[in-house]
Amino acid sequence: MAALHPSQPLYNNGPSSASGPSLLKDVSSNSFSGHSSGLHALHDVTLSASASSTNLFGGTASSASLAPAGPGQGQDTRHDGVVGAQESGLPPKTLKIDDFVRIRTLGTGTFARVVLVRHHHPRTEEEARQVYALKILRKAAVIKLKQIDHVRHERQILQDVSGHPFITNMLASFHDHDFLYILLDYVPGGELFSYLRKFRRFDEPTARFYAAEIVLVLEYLHEQQDGVAYRDLKPENLLLDEAGHVKLVDFGFAKRLGRDGAGGAVETYTLCGTPEYIAPEVIQNMGHTTAVDWWALGILIYEFLTGYPPFWHQNPLEIYRQILETPVVFAQDPSISSAAQDIVHQLCTVDRSRRLGNINGGAAKIKAHPFFDGVDWDALLERRDQGPIVPPVRFAGDAQCFDIYPENDVDYEQYTQELAEQYDSCFTNF
C-alpha cells in the first residue's frame, strides 16, 4: 500500500543531503504539526478521495498473479496464475485493469496512486458489493527514481505475509504497458494518524492496544519471516479496519534481511525511513538490522501518548542531530506512567545491542514488559474484541474516513518504447 499522509519518507545514500520543507498539520499544543518530508517519497501514497476518472487507466494487462491465501507461507501455489481467486471473490482469470471500475482516489504519492475499485462485470450480488484498494505504480517513475528492486521486494513480501490479521492483504498483482498494479483488501477506517490528530493524543489503554498489535506484527515479520525489516513504522502507515484493528500498509521500504552464517541478523546500509522515526544506526550509516523497527515502536508509543514525536524540527538534519545527541525526555504534562516511560526508553536505546526487542528473547521480552500487563496476546491475535476506536464505517465501500485528493496526475514520465525495451524484463513476473 503506502504512506498515508502527505509527509514524504526519506530515501538516499546518506543524511548529509537530506532537505525539504515540512508539511504542517495541527496535531498538538506544542506546535508539532506533521512529520517532516525527506528527499522524495519512495512509496508515500496518501489515502484520500474524489470523483471518478479513468485517464490513469489504459493498456492491456500482460500478466497477473494472485497471492496465496495463507499467511506468510512464502510459496507460490498458483495454478495457471489464479489460485486464491475464488476465496477473494476475484474472477478466475488473468486480471487486467478493465476488470475494475474506479470509484475514487484513495491516495497519491511520488510515483503511485491508490484507488478504490469494484468489479466491472460482477457475476453475483456479493461481487457487486465487493470493493478493493488498487495501488497503481508508474513504471517510468519507478525506473527514474531507481526503485525497481524496492517495488519488487514490496510485492514479494506482501505476497509472503498476506493473511496476517494486522497486515494489509495482497490479493493479486499484474501490469500493463505503463503501470504496475497491486490489488489489496480495502481497509475502510482510515489512517491512525487522523484519529491521533483528532484526539490530540491517546490515553494509555488505547496506546497500549495499538502498540500491542504492532508488536505482534513486528514479531511475525522479524522472527517468522526470516528477518523482514519494515523500516517505515509511523501512524500514517497504520490503517484501521471496520472493527478498529490495525492494518500495517506500505511495504515499500521493507526488506528481508535473513541471517548470516553465525546466526546473526544480516545488516543493510540503505538510508530510508521518515526522519522522526529513523534509528541512530541508520543515520550513522553503521549498517542496520530489524532493530530499527523496535526503535521506531518506541517513537510511536511516545507519539501516541503525547501527540508528537520526541525529535522534531522543520529541518531533517536537525532531527538527525537530536536523535544522535539528545535522549528521549517526557514533559510533565501530560502525565505518563513510569511503565510507559520505561518501555519507550528501553526501545529508544541508541546502543542496539541493549535495545529491547533486539536482545535475547526478542519480542517476548517486550510482551513481558509491565507496560503490557493485562494484555491477552492470544485474544488480541484472534481479534476477539473491537478496538478502542471503531471507525464510522457505514457500508463496505464507505470512504468517508479518507481525505480528498486530486484525481488526475498533472505531469508524469512516459514509458517510452526505449524504456520498454530496456526494462520490460524487470517487470515480467510482477
TrEMBL record:
SUPFAM superfamilies: Protein kinase-like (PK-like). Residues 9-20 have a biased composition (Polar residues). The keyword Kinase applies. ATP binds at K135. Its EC number is 2.7.11.11. Keywords: ATP-binding, Kinase, Nucleotide-binding, Serine/threonine-protein kinase, Transferase. It holds the Pfam family Pkinase. GO terms for molecular function: protein serine/threonine kinase activity. Residues 100-372 form the Protein kinase domain. Residues 1-22, 64-90 are annotated as: Disordered. Residues 373-430 form the AGC-kinase C-terminal domain. It catalyses: L-seryl-[protein] + ATP = O-phospho-L-seryl-[protein] + ADP + H(+); L-threonyl-[protein] + ATP = O-phospho-L-threonyl-[protein] + ADP + H(+). Coiled coil: none annotated. The keyword Transferase applies. Belongs to the protein kinase superfamily. This is cAMP-dependent protein kinase.
